[in-house]
Amino acid sequence: MINENKHIINRKVILIKCGYSAAKLAREIGVTPAAISQAIRGTTHSLRIHKAISDKLDVALVDFWPELYGYVPRVSHVEKVNEINEIVN
Fold it and tell me: Domain spanning 2-88 has what CATH number?
């Protein structure tokens, strides 16, 4: 739940930094404000809408929806080595 909220907040911050409200963005890409709201909350997985939003905001899909488009947690080399050592030993 916390991760989901973090992603929603990050999307809202990006929207504001780019100078958009949900209503303004909806008008400019030709969708309803409800569609934007659903996309921000992550309750729709419409690639067409996600692509239109990311193109308009000039942000990569993975940066706006990391949980949907390939976010990969980064693991340090030390953590991986320790994990392997635990398995081997």
Answer: 1.10.260.40
